[in-house]
Specification:
Strand order of the largest sheet: 3-4-5-6-7-8-9-10
CATH topology of the largest domain: TIM Barrel
Number of helices: 18
Radius of gyration: 22 Å
Shape: globular
Number of domains: 2
CATH superfamily of the largest domain: Radical SAM ThiC family, central domain
Helix content: 40-55%
Largest sheet: 8 strands, parallel, barrel
Structural class: alpha/beta
Order of helices and strands: HHHEEEHEHEHHEHHHHEHEHEHEHHHH
Distance between the termini: 63 Å
Number of strands: 10
Strand content: 5-15%
CATH class of the largest domain: Alpha Beta
Amino acid sequence: MTQIEIARKGKYSKEMLKVAKDEGVSKEYIRENIAEGKIVITSNIKHRPKKVVGIGKGLSTKVNVNIGTSSVRPNLALELKKLAVALKHGADAVMDLSTGGDLDKNRKLVIKGSDIAVGTVPLYQAMVKVVSRGGSLPDITGDDMMEAVIAHIKDGVDFVTVHCGVTRETIERMKQEGRIAGIVSRGGSFIAEWMHLTGKQNPLYERYDELLEIAKAYDCTLSLGDGLRPGCGADATDRAQVHELITLGELADRAVKAGVQVMIEGPGHVPLKQVEANMLLQKRLCHEVPFYVLGPLVTDIAPGYDHITSAIGGAIAGAAGADFLCYVTPSEHLRLPDVEDVRMGTIASKIAAHVADIAKGVPGAAERDRKMSVARKALDWEGQEKYALDPYIIRKLRKGGKILDGACSMCGKYCAMKRKP
């Protein structure tokens, strides 16, 4: 049975009990919200990650890290190093977005080496497969797309992104309104161009019941991709984005009714004043299923620093109801990220998630800050490492600075923390 089916029978899976304990909430709360589709536990029966997390209503904000080869840099060893960094710095999930090299091998090794949930975008593999045999985009069939989804789920992928909401109707609305950046989702652009070239409807939309069937068999969570997410602030919250969101909300209802775990993916580039409205809109239109957002990035003019722009947006989004933040690295828009980019992006998103948790009143979030403050007052550097999101940076910076009577080199003997009123 899926987590939803277990919950609807009034029973508890070991994953539900673990999540309840970790989150400091009752097991009844977890069961009831899983039964209603408002919480998901991303755990394919073929993988069962060691770090079990719940994503959704009333729980701490989770962070996903994207890794994966490209056609330009098909270096699997590098991606496995990135996976190690993501695990070290507390990522809750990782997505393998590989498009270069042996995709099957890449995926299986990431799943094998990951103690956390693994997600993928099977559509990429369908595209690469056809191109590798000398074909082009119009040669991809609905069967190719479905076969890729089935292969990924059977391998143990815990959640799959499927761009079911990119329909001919949605694309027409985008054309009528006009956009600066057009479609920036790789999967969304594949589907849109495929429909344009073939004159057909999106197979992932038309064959949605088949997706539900295979996802249910392995309790794989469907992550309904936002193929029309805005790629710049000026395109945010337009008719195409909202039309797709309405479609995804309807598809999410069908998934929950069928006993399949589901979450909704969201923007993207969103001006600061629109972030909260986007979160409220999704929760209303999608009946509070978990919301998974990329950033969002609140300005377009900071390439090289987009881990910061996304952290700002992520904190506001999380506080307003987003459940799952997809990290953004300094390399966003510029190149395939390296290991240091992954570290910086992970930490930035972890900061945003924690800030959101304090605002939402998640149990234990503010208490961790209080303990850090007590350690700072006591000049307890080991204690500060214990409560810090990145203890490694504390050791590194402290090692490079002169220590005087327990104080740092900023104030030395004039340390305010050592003064007594």
